[in-house]
Amino acid sequence: MAVMSENNQTIMSANKATAATDKLNSIAPNWLADMATAPADPVFGLMEIFRRDPRTDKINLTVGAYQDDSGQTPVLECVKRAEQQLWQRQKTKNYLPIDGLAGFNEAIPPLIFGADHEVLASGRAAAVQTPGGTAALRVVGDLLRRVLGVRKIWISNPTWANHPQIFTAADLQIQHYSYVAADCSGLDFAKLSGQLEQAEPGDAVLMHAVCHNPTGFDFSREQWQSLRELVRARRLIPVFDFAYQGFSESIETDPWPIHWFAQDLSELFICTSFSKNMGLYGERVGALTVVARSSDRLPAAISQIKSLIRTYYSTPPLQGGAIADCVLHDQELRQLWSQEVDQMRQRIQRVREQFVQRLGQSIPQRSFGYILDQRGMFSFSGLSREQAIRLREEFGVYMVESGRINIAGINDRNLERLCETIGQVVNNK
Ligand code: PMP
Questions:
Q1: CB 214 within 8 A of CB 385
Q2: Which residue CA neighbors atom 12 of ligand 1 most closely?
Q3: In this structure, what are the phi and psi dihedrals at residue 421, rounded to the nearest 5 degrees?
Q4: Please, is 26 exposed, middle or buried when counting C-beta atoms within 10 Å of its C-beta (0-12, 13-18, 19+)?
């Protein structure tokens, strides 16, 4: 037998490999080969880059999670105690109903409306447990589009980066209303109202009830009042994103704008999140509340919401809802929760003041007083996109490119370096 040359052997095995690939291609088409990579999420994408950054003095002010003085996002004590109770008494991990835990759902309207509002007495509000505020927003988006036939939703510019994505996915057209003044020092309410005047009857309008993300600028009472008149006059459907109850003034007073809008038998939707105020981020706990003209309109609305949910995630996760349910119903835990929310809010306010004071030393020519007017976890620093990028690339200081800073990410160990580097970038050194 002739000995095959090395060259021939290589050609033969290459031919074999091609034949094998051809055969595989005919059996298993290569659908994913040409798939383009989707753009990274503006907030979570930055988190990934932060994690990979080897610099030891890097500072993370991106993701909207509360951090304590030590830079941790803690499990609240009320949550730990609720988990202990659950460990003792939970008998099953069986599915929840499509609309979640009945006890949890019953606790939401009183949490939003307090004890005395007419909405509660008339029984014209009902809530459905959702996996976080995000799912509540998506479900209401689909309810508006697919069930109520709404075509457009008005959202602030800027807003939480996920809002346009969520409502576009729900097939709603996005219409922006301006929010901040050109110099970033507050709201431009005149411009905002002028734009909302253009809305057509039956359009939806999304409003951040408190602690506007990303700017931290909220409406004054007078502005809320005239906004309500406008929303009514234009016959718009109000949707409230309520992701920060308790982070502005208190759990009890923060829902005030919703109370105001719900008067006179008005109908509206509220998307609650327990991610921040109960620290239940990864547990995914939220609620969609429907406020109807009268209680007899609720069953149909809830039935439509349930049929939408069934095709998304079928039923909400059990554990987070059970924890929140326990905290909201147990008097002692409820009180502890309220104290813990107060502590988080007070720490953020303290850090906000320190930040403004120290920033004033680095950049004496500019006033940052407007940061003290902002509420909640975020601050619209007024830094430009270019400045935010330079801070990240040159100094390892991470913030969202809109210039949004998570104030809760500032602590005694990073304040000095943060303000010094912002100073260098703003003073263009
Ligand atoms: N709305 C706003 C304004 C938010 O900031 C967030 C969270 N970053 C959400 C909704 C969604 O929260 P959740 O994590 O509960 O889905």
A1: no
A2: 133
A3: -70, -40
A4: exposed
Task: Out of 241, 254, 325, 337, pick the active-site residue.
Answer: 241
Q: Which atom of ligand 1 is nearest to the CA of 286?
A: 15
Beta strands across the sheet bearing 286-291? 125-130, 286-291, 268-273, 237-242, 204-208, 152-157, 173-178
Q: Which atom of ligand 1 is nearest to the CA of 134?
A: 16
Per-residue pLDDT of the chain (429 residues; tens, 9 = 90+): 445 566 777 777 777 778 887 777 777 777 888 889 998 887 888 888 999 999 999 999 998 899 999 999 999 999 999 999 999 999 999 999 999 999 999 999 999 999 889 999 999 999 999 999 999 999 999 999 999 999 999 999 999 999 999 999 999 999 999 999 988 889 999 999 999 999 999 999 999 999 999 999 999 999 999 999 999 999 999 999 999 999 999 999 999 999 999 998 899 999 999 999 999 999 999 999 999 999 999 999 999 999 999 999 999 999 999 999 999 999 999 999 999 999 999 999 999 999 999 999 999 998 889 999 999 999 988 889 999 999 999 999 999 888 899 999 999 999 999 999 999 999 887
Tokens of 333: 């835990």
pTM: 0.92
Could you tell me whether strands 268-273 and 237-242 are parallel, antiparallel, or unpaired per DSSP bridges? Answer: parallel
Say whether 31 is catalytic. no
